[in-house]
Amino acid sequence: MKYIVDDKNLDAATFIAFANQIWQGSYNVEKTQDALSKTGCGQQIFKTCKR
Question: Under a CB-based contact definition with an 8 Å cutoff, are residues 26 and 3 in contact?
Fold first, then answer.
């Protein structure tokens, strides 16, 4: 996965697949998509999107 600052085309499924390679977990797709639309900060997304 290539990191692009403020990537408006990044979808939750792609982000979760990447995240699970580093931080194994169960992530909520809808919450992740919502967080991606609001922030570029990955750490905040993980806090928000864990089920």
Answer: no
